[in-house]
């Protein structure tokens, strides 16, 4: 099968130019849908990162009553140490907790606090972050225990929000991608229709189906590729925008910093976007071409 | 070269286009396929182009049974068959040269082959001087010559013509017939579906007549009508053929040409 690259690209370019408005529509739809796909992927990876980082830092804090005796304090500590899912446990004195409270609580809350009424605490690191709830269950309300703090609930809410967001992105992107494929299919169909005389002559004199097909499929491929290139630019723009934010962020433990992605992840996302775009173009045009050429 | 063995073709709506048709056409023959509209002539051509498959029976073409040809081989079969139609089917935006060259381009022939073969065949059909004209600037007869050039440029074994003179006046038709005759004398098998009675009578070649899908006559040196009264038509001009056309005949013109 001798189909020259020059011939295919010449034909594809002239077809694209002939239907330029449709081409622009198809390319833009591909771009928008793939930009959404790309951002959904970034969001998903960022969320995974953030939760991973949070969970590594999950400490369950068991606050012991300010008025508790020393033996009460150490008995709580012993019980914590015996739990199989507790990796390590560190005691924090009232003075230490007072100092910490001073650094994180707003001034009006802090003013009501004195070292004497500040509870002392056990800070426990867990083997499995998900087991934080067990400790909360076990120790809340025990004699001497004032309060068990675990950030897992907040993390879970955050995770759900990100999950929902990400699926919404993907669903919208899927619908848009489908319409992009249909638009590409339609442009190719119009291109074939515009050249139906040529196609019929080609079939008559014995051009192979691939020879007839390839220029049209190349056209679909170019539309998909152009669209996904625009989408890649959007994805990169988002990435670098966030990168700037993370560098200048005042609070280095903020969500944006926690979600920040590595260069490989962004590269992979861009490649996925490109491949999906090209596939959408090729599949759309292949479907359009199939109908016309089966004789 | 072409062999039909008990070929039957029925279209949807139970119109029988060909019924149990058996024909043998040898290499280098010149055959007229005649019959009224709807008699199955076009189906015959379409079967030869493998645009249709018979419901039953077998067809051989150039030594191959085309019913058994895999789909991807069909284009290669068609490269051995040239075909012209009543409506010429030229590409209006391409020049005469480009129209003929297109047939070679799309089967992947290199430029230098195109640049030698196209002028040759344009010379054969007598259009060398109009090579840069668009089809719209040519007369009907000239357009049909371009179509013939396109069909013949790849030197096919078989040349099919479906009503090639259907849109042309008798004088022009004669010119087209003489061109097809000349092509036939290069060894190409020529099959012409027509109801141009005058032409058939004048050429005196093999005639295969179809009537509602049934082969009713296969006659060497036949005429269009069955009875003898029409056979005189070739000499006179009841069919509207102007007498003066005979003066255009070369010594080896269609009248004299017998294989």
List the helices and strands and how they pair.
The complex is a heterodimer of chains A (about 300) and B (about 260).
Chain A: H1 5-18, H2 20-56, E1 59-64, H3 70-82, E2 86-92, H4 94-104, H5 107-111, E3 120-126, H6 132-139, E4 145-149, H7 152-194, H8 196-204, H9 209-248, H10 255-259, H11 263-293
Chain B: E1 2-11, E2 15-25, E3 30-34, H1 41-48, E4 56-61, E5 64-65, H2 74-78, E6 81-85, H3 96-105, H4 111-124, H5 140-152, E7 158-162, H6 170-184, E8 189-193, H7 197-203, E9 206-211, E10 214-219, H8 228-231, H9 245-248
Parallel strand pairs in B: 3-8, 3-9, 6-7, 7-8
Antiparallel strand pairs in B: 1-2, 1-4, 4-5, 9-10
Helix pairs in contact in B: 3-4, 3-5, 4-5, 5-6
What tags apply to this protein structure?
A: 295 residues; alpha+beta; four-stranded antiparallel sheet; 11 helices; 8% strand; B: 259 residues; alpha/beta; 24% strand; globular; disordered C terminus
Can you offer a commentary on this structure?
The complex is a heterodimer of chains A (295) and B (259). Chain A is of the alpha+beta class. Chain A has eleven helices and four strands. Chain A starts with a helix and ends with a helix. At the A-B interface, helix 8 and helix 9 of A face helix 2 and helix 3 of B.
Radius of gyration of chain A: 31 Å
Terminal residue distance of chain B: 16 Å
Determine the N-to-C terminus distance of chain A: 19 Å
Specify Rg of chain B, calculated over alpha carbons: 18 Å
Question: What quaternary form is this?
Answer: heterodimer
Shape of chain B: globular
Broad structural category of chain A = alpha+beta
**Backbone shape of chain A:** rod-shaped
């Amino acid at each position: 099968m001798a189909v020259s690259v020059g011939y295919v690209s010449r034909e594809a370019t002239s077809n694209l130019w002939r239907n330029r408005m449709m081409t622009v529509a198809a390319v833009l739809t591909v771009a928008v849908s793939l930009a959404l796909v790309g951002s959904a992927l970034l969001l998903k990876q960022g969320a995974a990162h953030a939760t991973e980082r949070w969970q590594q830092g999950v400490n369950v804090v068991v606050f012991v009553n300010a008025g508790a005796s020393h033996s009460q304090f150490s008995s709580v500590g012993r019980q914590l140490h015996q739990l199989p899912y507790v990796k390590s446990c560190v005691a924090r004195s009232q003075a230490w907790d007072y100092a910490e409270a001073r650094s994180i609580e707003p001034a009006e809350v802090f003013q009501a606090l004195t070292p004497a009424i500040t509870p002392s605490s056990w800070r426990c690191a867990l083997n499995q972050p998900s087991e934080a709830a067990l400790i909360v269950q076990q120790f809340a309300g025990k004699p001497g225990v004032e309060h068990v703090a675990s950030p897992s609930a907040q993390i879970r809410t955050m995770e759900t929000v990100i999950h929902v967001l990400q699926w919404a992105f993907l669903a919208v992107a899927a619908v848009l991608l489908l319409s992009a494929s249909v638009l590409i299919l339609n442009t190719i169909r119009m291109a074939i229709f515009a050249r139906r005389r040529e196609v019929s002559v080609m079939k008559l004199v014995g051009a192979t189906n691939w020879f007839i097909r390839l220029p049209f499929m190349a056209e679909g491929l170019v539309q998909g590729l152009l669209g996904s290139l625009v989408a890649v630019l959007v994805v990169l723009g988002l990435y670098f925008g966030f990168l700037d934010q993370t560098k200048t962020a005042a609070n280095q433990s903020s969500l944006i910093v926690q979600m920040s992605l590595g260069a490989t992840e962004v590269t992979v996302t861009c490649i996925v976007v490109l491949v999906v775009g090209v596939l959408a173009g090729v599949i759309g045009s292949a479907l359009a071409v199939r109908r016309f050429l089966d004789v | 070269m072409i062999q039909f063995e008990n070929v039957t073709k029925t279209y949807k709506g139970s119109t029988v286009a060909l019924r149990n048709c058996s024909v043998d056409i040898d290499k280098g023959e010149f055959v007229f396929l005649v019959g009224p509209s709807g008699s199955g002539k076009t189906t015959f051509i379409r079967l030869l182009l493998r645009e249709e498959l018979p419901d039953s029976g077998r067809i051989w073409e150039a030594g191959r049974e085309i019913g058994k040809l895999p789909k991807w081989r069909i284009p290669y079969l068609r490269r051995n068959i040239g075909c012209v139609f009543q409506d010429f089917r030229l590409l209006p935006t391409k020049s005469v040269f480009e129209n003929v060259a297109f047939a070679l381009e799309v089967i992947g022939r290199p430029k230098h082959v195109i640049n030698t073969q196209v002028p040759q065949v344009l010379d054969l059909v007598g259009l060398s001087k109009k090579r840069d004209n668009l089809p719209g600037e040519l007369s009907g007869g000239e357009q049909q010559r371009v179509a013939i050039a396109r069909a013949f440029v790849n030197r096919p074994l078989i040349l099919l013509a479906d009503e090639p003179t259907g849109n042309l006046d008798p004088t022009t038709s004669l010119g087209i017939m003489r061109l097809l005759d000349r092509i036939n004398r290069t060894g190409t098998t020529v099959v012409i579906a027509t109801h141009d009675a005058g032409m058939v009578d004048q050429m005196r070649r093999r005639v295969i007549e179809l009537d509602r899908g049934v082969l009713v006559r296969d006659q060497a040196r036949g005429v269009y009508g069955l009875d003898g009264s029409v056979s005189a038509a070739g000499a006179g001009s009841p069919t509207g053929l102007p007498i003066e056309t005979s003066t255009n005949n070369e010594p080896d013109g269609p009248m004299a040409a017998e294989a």
